[in-house]
Automatic annotation (TrEMBL):
GO terms for cellular component: cytosol; Golgi membrane; trans-Golgi network. One of its GO terms (biological process) is Golgi to plasma membrane protein transport. This is Protein SYS1 homolog. It comes from Theobroma cacao. Coiled coil: none annotated. PANTHER family: PROTEIN SYS1 HOMOLOG (PTHR12952:SF0), SYS1 (PTHR12952). Belongs to the SYS1 family. It comes from the Eukaryota. The chain crosses the membrane at residues 12-36, 59-83, 90-110, 116-136. Pfam families: SYS1 (PF09801). Keywords: Golgi apparatus, Membrane, Protein transport, Transmembrane, Transmembrane helix, Transport. It is found in: Golgi apparatus membrane.
Protein backbone atom coordinates (compact mmCIF):
# COMPACT_ATOMS: atom_id res chain seq x y z
CA UNK A 1 0.00 0.00 0.00
CA UNK A 2 1.77 3.09 -1.21
CA UNK A 3 -0.31 6.24 -0.89
CA UNK A 4 2.06 8.76 -2.44
CA UNK A 5 1.00 8.50 -6.08
CA UNK A 6 -2.78 8.77 -6.26
CA UNK A 7 -4.26 7.64 -9.53
CA UNK A 8 -7.92 8.39 -10.18
CA UNK A 9 -9.54 5.12 -11.18
CA UNK A 10 -13.31 5.47 -11.70
CA UNK A 11 -13.82 1.74 -12.20
CA UNK A 12 -12.22 1.04 -8.84
CA UNK A 13 -14.46 3.62 -7.16
CA UNK A 14 -17.60 2.17 -8.77
CA UNK A 15 -16.53 -1.36 -7.81
CA UNK A 16 -15.94 -0.26 -4.21
CA UNK A 17 -19.35 1.42 -4.05
CA UNK A 18 -21.09 -1.66 -5.46
CA UNK A 19 -19.24 -4.02 -3.11
CA UNK A 20 -19.91 -1.82 -0.09
CA UNK A 21 -23.62 -1.52 -0.96
CA UNK A 22 -23.96 -5.27 -1.48
CA UNK A 23 -22.17 -6.11 1.76
CA UNK A 24 -24.28 -3.56 3.65
CA UNK A 25 -27.54 -5.08 2.41
CA UNK A 26 -26.22 -8.59 3.02
CA UNK A 27 -25.43 -7.78 6.64
CA UNK A 28 -28.73 -5.90 7.00
CA UNK A 29 -30.52 -9.00 5.72
CA UNK A 30 -28.71 -11.21 8.21
CA UNK A 31 -29.53 -8.91 11.13
CA UNK A 32 -33.14 -8.50 9.99
CA UNK A 33 -33.57 -12.25 9.63
CA UNK A 34 -32.30 -12.85 13.17
CA UNK A 35 -34.00 -9.93 14.89
CA UNK A 36 -37.18 -9.41 12.86
CA UNK A 37 -37.58 -12.78 11.13
CA UNK A 38 -38.28 -14.47 14.45
CA UNK A 39 -41.08 -11.97 15.19
CA UNK A 40 -42.98 -11.85 11.89
CA UNK A 41 -44.62 -14.56 9.84
CA UNK A 42 -43.04 -13.50 6.54
CA UNK A 43 -39.94 -11.43 5.74
CA UNK A 44 -40.07 -9.09 2.76
CA UNK A 45 -38.33 -6.07 1.27
CA UNK A 46 -40.67 -3.86 3.30
CA UNK A 47 -38.27 -4.12 6.24
CA UNK A 48 -35.36 -3.01 4.06
CA UNK A 49 -36.86 -0.10 2.18
CA UNK A 50 -40.17 1.07 3.69
CA UNK A 51 -39.81 3.94 6.14
CA UNK A 52 -42.99 2.90 7.99
CA UNK A 53 -41.30 -0.17 9.48
CA UNK A 54 -38.69 1.98 11.24
CA UNK A 55 -40.79 2.89 14.26
CA UNK A 56 -40.41 3.10 18.02
CA UNK A 57 -44.02 2.14 18.74
CA UNK A 58 -43.57 -1.63 18.36
CA UNK A 59 -41.00 -4.19 19.40
CA UNK A 60 -40.60 -5.22 15.77
CA UNK A 61 -39.83 -1.59 14.91
CA UNK A 62 -37.12 -1.52 17.56
CA UNK A 63 -35.67 -4.72 16.07
CA UNK A 64 -35.61 -3.05 12.63
CA UNK A 65 -33.82 -0.04 14.17
CA UNK A 66 -31.29 -2.33 15.87
CA UNK A 67 -30.71 -4.12 12.56
CA UNK A 68 -29.96 -0.86 10.77
CA UNK A 69 -27.57 0.30 13.48
CA UNK A 70 -25.78 -3.06 13.64
CA UNK A 71 -25.42 -2.94 9.84
CA UNK A 72 -23.78 0.47 10.08
CA UNK A 73 -21.27 -0.96 12.57
CA UNK A 74 -20.60 -3.84 10.16
CA UNK A 75 -20.28 -1.27 7.37
CA UNK A 76 -17.45 0.39 9.29
CA UNK A 77 -15.62 -2.92 9.18
CA UNK A 78 -16.24 -3.16 5.45
CA UNK A 79 -14.79 0.34 5.04
CA UNK A 80 -11.64 -0.85 6.80
CA UNK A 81 -11.04 -3.62 4.28
CA UNK A 82 -12.55 -2.19 1.07
CA UNK A 83 -11.68 1.51 1.25
CA UNK A 84 -8.59 1.45 3.53
CA UNK A 85 -8.27 5.26 3.73
CA UNK A 86 -9.66 7.31 6.60
CA UNK A 87 -10.24 10.39 4.49
CA UNK A 88 -12.50 8.45 2.10
CA UNK A 89 -14.74 6.88 4.76
CA UNK A 90 -17.20 9.79 4.97
CA UNK A 91 -17.52 9.92 1.18
CA UNK A 92 -18.29 6.23 0.82
CA UNK A 93 -20.62 6.17 3.86
CA UNK A 94 -22.60 9.13 2.57
CA UNK A 95 -22.77 7.57 -0.90
CA UNK A 96 -24.11 4.32 0.55
CA UNK A 97 -26.86 6.11 2.47
CA UNK A 98 -27.75 8.40 -0.45
CA UNK A 99 -28.19 5.34 -2.68
CA UNK A 100 -30.27 3.77 0.10
CA UNK A 101 -32.42 6.93 0.22
CA UNK A 102 -33.04 6.76 -3.54
CA UNK A 103 -34.01 3.08 -3.33
CA UNK A 104 -36.38 3.87 -0.45
CA UNK A 105 -37.96 6.70 -2.45
CA UNK A 106 -38.51 4.39 -5.44
CA UNK A 107 -39.88 1.60 -3.21
CA UNK A 108 -42.16 3.48 -0.84
CA UNK A 109 -42.08 7.20 -1.51
CA UNK A 110 -40.38 10.05 0.33
CA UNK A 111 -39.55 8.99 3.93
CA UNK A 112 -41.85 11.15 6.07
CA UNK A 113 -40.98 9.47 9.36
CA UNK A 114 -38.70 11.43 11.67
CA UNK A 115 -37.55 8.13 13.16
CA UNK A 116 -36.33 6.94 9.76
CA UNK A 117 -34.26 10.11 9.30
CA UNK A 118 -32.80 9.91 12.82
CA UNK A 119 -31.89 6.23 12.48
CA UNK A 120 -30.24 6.72 9.09
CA UNK A 121 -28.48 9.89 10.26
CA UNK A 122 -27.07 8.03 13.24
CA UNK A 123 -26.21 5.13 10.93
CA UNK A 124 -24.17 7.24 8.51
CA UNK A 125 -22.43 8.98 11.43
CA UNK A 126 -21.55 5.69 13.14
CA UNK A 127 -20.37 4.11 9.92
CA UNK A 128 -18.23 7.08 8.89
CA UNK A 129 -16.74 7.83 12.31
CA UNK A 130 -16.07 4.23 13.29
CA UNK A 131 -14.70 3.50 9.82
CA UNK A 132 -12.38 6.51 10.05
CA UNK A 133 -11.26 5.45 13.51
CA UNK A 134 -10.46 1.92 12.36
CA UNK A 135 -8.67 3.14 9.23
CA UNK A 136 -6.63 5.68 11.20
CA UNK A 137 -5.57 2.97 13.64
CA UNK A 138 -4.40 0.87 10.70
CA UNK A 139 -2.62 3.81 9.01
CA UNK A 140 -0.79 4.77 12.20
CA UNK A 141 0.59 1.31 12.93
CA UNK A 142 4.32 1.13 13.04
CA UNK A 143 5.95 -0.27 9.96
CA UNK A 144 7.92 -3.34 11.00
CA UNK A 145 11.53 -3.08 10.00
CA UNK A 146 13.50 -6.24 10.39
CA UNK A 147 17.22 -6.39 10.21
CA UNK A 148 18.86 -9.50 9.08
CA UNK A 149 22.07 -9.97 10.97
CA UNK A 150 24.54 -12.47 9.83
CA UNK A 151 25.96 -14.49 12.67
CA UNK A 152 29.57 -14.40 11.58
Amino acid sequence: MFYGAVVWDPWLIVAQIVCLQCLYYLSLGVFLSFLVGTRVSRMSLVYFFDFATVTTSTVTGWCVIASFLLSSIAGAGYLLYLIERAKKCLDFSATLYIIHLFICIVYGGWPSSVTWWVVNGIGVAVMALLGEYLCIRRELREIPITRYRSNV
